[in-house]
Write a structure and sequence with these properties.
Blueprint: E1 5-6, E2 19-26, E3 34-40, E4 46-48, E5 51-52, H1 76-99, E6 104-108, H2 114-121, E7 125-129, H3 133-141, E8 147-148, E9 161-167, H4 176-186, E10 187-198, H5 203-208, E11 222-223, H6 226-234, E12 238-245, H7 247-260, H8 265-278, E13 288-295
Parallel strand pairs: 6-7, 6-9, 7-8, 9-10
Antiparallel strand pairs: 1-5, 2-3, 3-4, 4-11, 10-13, 12-13
The structure holds zinc ion.
Amino acid sequence: MKHQLINIEKCPICGGDSLEKFLEAEDHNVSHDRFNIVECNDCSFRFTNPIPTEDTIGNYYKSENYVSHSGTKKGLINRVYHVVRSRAIKQKEKLASKHSTAKNILDIGCGTGDFLAYCKSLNWNTLGLEPDQSARNIAIESNLIEAKPLNHLYAVEENTFDVISMWHVLEHVYNLNEDIKQYKKILKQDGVLIVAVPNCSSKDAEHYGTNWAAYDLPIHLYHFRPNNMKKLFSNHGMEVVEILPMKYDAYYISMVSEKYKGGNIFSGFFNGFKSNLAANAKNNKYSSQIYVIKHQKGV
Ligand SMILES: [Zn+2]
């Protein structure tokens, strides 16, 4: 499956045009095509380049492995994933509550709406945005959540939300800087933007290299590290105020990576454990991390 690819000439974070190949890896899920990740020589940001066009990227999502959009419970990895997910949902809401007493939340990339359904049960006013129509329909019909296509982002009024959450979504966003400008506009002055993304400076990323599941080429367009996140948001007058670990992700990502390299699930579990052991609140090297982001004062 070779679709037309777009070559990105400039770094989306610093605008630098000195880009060097960092790694070449396979799309393990759908096409088995190979894609490159480049690194910016000026700010060290890593991103997929070239990338499929926005209207063809959907072809790379159609996979049973893409569990976050489906109700499938086949296989041990998926079963574990579903159990852990319900615990994770509670922790996510707790984090949102900790940072905001007012209860208007927008979840971008809400999938089937499980997180928002839980928020709604705790009296949050919820809105979800989701590009995948079948996931959106489940959100609306089964979870009774208001869910709209992604372009609704630009129809939202300024200063509307206390919390905007994006759980493993920012790495998929095509118009990165334009969309961040819009998140900033629709977020209230004392509001909080909560962004979870994989971290390619983690021990498990280092260990698995081209088989690291969270590279997820080509659908992950960006491969953020903590400094990239800080720079990206400070470019927009926003500030990372807290970085938190997502410890389950080290296990999940390591087990899937192990599957890609033909290894066994127990090594995956062990490597997930080792990754968490190597990470701490100072080095911010967890497999996936949550960035709590606020408006910079006076910007
Ligand atoms: Zn750069």
